[in-house]
Amino acid sequence: MAxxxxxxxxxxxxxxxxxxxxxxxxxxFSVEDGVFVVCDGMGGAAAGEIASAMAVEEMLRLLHRRAVxxxxxxxxxxxxxxxxxxQAIYSRSQRNLQLSGMGTTLVSLVAEERxxxxxxxxxxxxxxxxxxxxxxxxQDHSLVExxxxxxxxxxxxxQRSPLRNxxxxxxxxxxxxxxxxxxxxxxxxxxxxxCSDGLTRELTDxxxxxxxxxxxxLDELCSRLVKAAKKAGGHDNITCLLVRAGG
Length: 247
Description:
The chain is of the alpha+beta class. 34% of the residues lie in helices and 28% in strands.
C-alpha cells in the first residue's frame, strides 16, 4: 500500500533579547526545497552577524540548486553545502583582519517526502515534538555537554557552569568541519523546533514542551517561545524556527 505524502509548513521568529545590542542570529527556510536553517554567529564587531548570514545564504542557495538539478542525494548535498559555507566564512575571515575568528553555529533540517535529516555544528539545537512529548535530536558541541556525556559533570552542573558558553565546533573557525547528521522519518503531526541557545539557556525542555503543546498557529507558537525566553531573562539573541509535518 502506498504511503501518503507528507507536506511541511514552517514559521520563524528572531529577537535580539533584552541584553544584547544587536542580533547575531540568522535563519532561513524554503518549504519548496525542504530546507530549514538556524545559525548563531560569534565574533567581534559585526563579524557574528556576517558569519551567520553567510551560512544561511549558502545553505539555501546550494540546496536550491541541487533541488532544481536533481543532482545527488539530499543528505550528502546538505553536508557539502555546510562544508562550502564553512570554507566561505573561513576564507573571508582570513582575508579581513577585522573578521578574524568569526564563526557560527548551524542547525538545519532537510526534508524529502517522509525522510528527513538534521545536521548540526555547535550548540544550536533541533527538537521533535511527537505525541505531546519533546525529544532533543541533536547533541551540543559544547565543552560542558561533552563533559556530561563523559559522566564528568551532571546536567545541573552544566547549567550552572561558567564554561557553558564554550563551544567545541563551529562553522568558519577552521578550514574544515564535519557536521553531525541524524536520519529521521516524519509522521503527520510531528513538530520540529530549530533554535539558537538564546532559547534553551532560558527555558528548560519541560517548559518548551509545555509552550508547544497548544492549539495555535506556528507563528503564534514562535511568538510564545520568544516572549517566554525574554521574560525568563533574554540574556542572548533568541531564534526559533518551527516545521510541522502534515498529511
